[in-house]
Design a protein that fits this description.
Elements lengths: L1 E4 L2 E8 L5 H10 L1 H6 L7 E9 L4 E10 L2 E9 L2 H21 L3 H15 L11 H8 L2 H7 L4 H14 L1 H6 L6 H15 L9 H7 L1 H10 L1 H14 L5
């Protein structure tokens, strides 16, 4: 059952036992120091697995904390569930604080980018509001591309993965199909159809939907699409 303690996403699984509501509430209280230790890290997730062993009449608790670039684990066993939970959380909090003091900066940066993309919900009051809509309406491709600059690395990776999944595209990669051309084709398609998009999905989801048709169009008409993307790159410097 997923829940949250501050920024810490919590999931609990049980085997051969049930955790009463009051014990769950106490668990979330015990997790406060751990949540504070990872408060500056993006997207921390904690899995708690509680197993009851009838023969020994003991609870075994396993904790797995997912952090950028590292998974931390701790465990404890005791005849009393609250004691096992408390011991395991203390051990995990110590390890989490040590990691937070010296995190994997590259992994943290990538996690922040992914979090920003997930949270970047494109749902304005009207389809013609916002800087991207204004740039599209004004025919200013340079401004449109600049506003989407934060998506560049993510989009290139998504394009590369989709090309790998399509044998016909993979076979032509490096000849008449280039990742940079697909990326530019996606941006150009987004520029031309921005006000027609659905406002019920995030901007990253909408851009991802444009990748596959952009690949298909380049494969069908490589010369025309190459000319269009070349012109689009020129328009980065000069508005229409």
């Amino acid at each position: 059952m997923p829940s949250r303690t501050n920024n810490l996403r919590l999931r609990i699984q049980t085997k051969d036992c049930n955790i009463p509501t009051d014990e769950r509430e106490r668990l979330e209280g015990l997790l406060t120091p751990l949540a504070e230790a990872v408060a500056e890290l993006p997207t921390p997730e904690l899995m708690v697995e509680v197993i009851y062993h009838p023969r020994s009449r003991a609870y075994h608790v396993e904790f797995t904390l997912k952090l950028p670039g590292r998974n931390l684990r701790a465990g404890a066993a005791d005849a009393y569930l609250d004691t096992a939970l408390e011991r395991g959380i203390q051990e995990l909090t110590t390890r989490a604080a040590a990691y937070a003091a010296h995190p994997d900066e590259a992994a943290v940066g990538m996690a922040r980018d992914r979090e920003a993309l997930r949270n970047d919900v494109l749902a304005p009051e009207a389809a013609d509001e916002g800087p991207l809509a204004h740039a599209s309406a004004e025919g200013d491709y340079a401004a449109f591309r600049t506003a989407l600059a934060r998506y560049e690395e993510w989009l290139r990776k998504r394009v590369g993965r989709l090309i790998q999944r399509r044998a016909n595209a993979q076979a032509r990669l490096g000849r008449d199909l280039r990742i940079g051309d697909v990326v530019e084709a996606v941006y150009l398609r987004a520029f031309e159809h921005f006000t027609e998009r659905s406002t019920d999905v995030s901007l990253s989801e909408w851009l991802e939907e444009l990748i596959d048709p952009s690949i298909s169009e380049i494969l069908r008409h490589p010369d025309e699409e190459r000319e269009a993307t070349s012109l689009a790159r020129t328009l980065r410097e000069t508005p229409l």
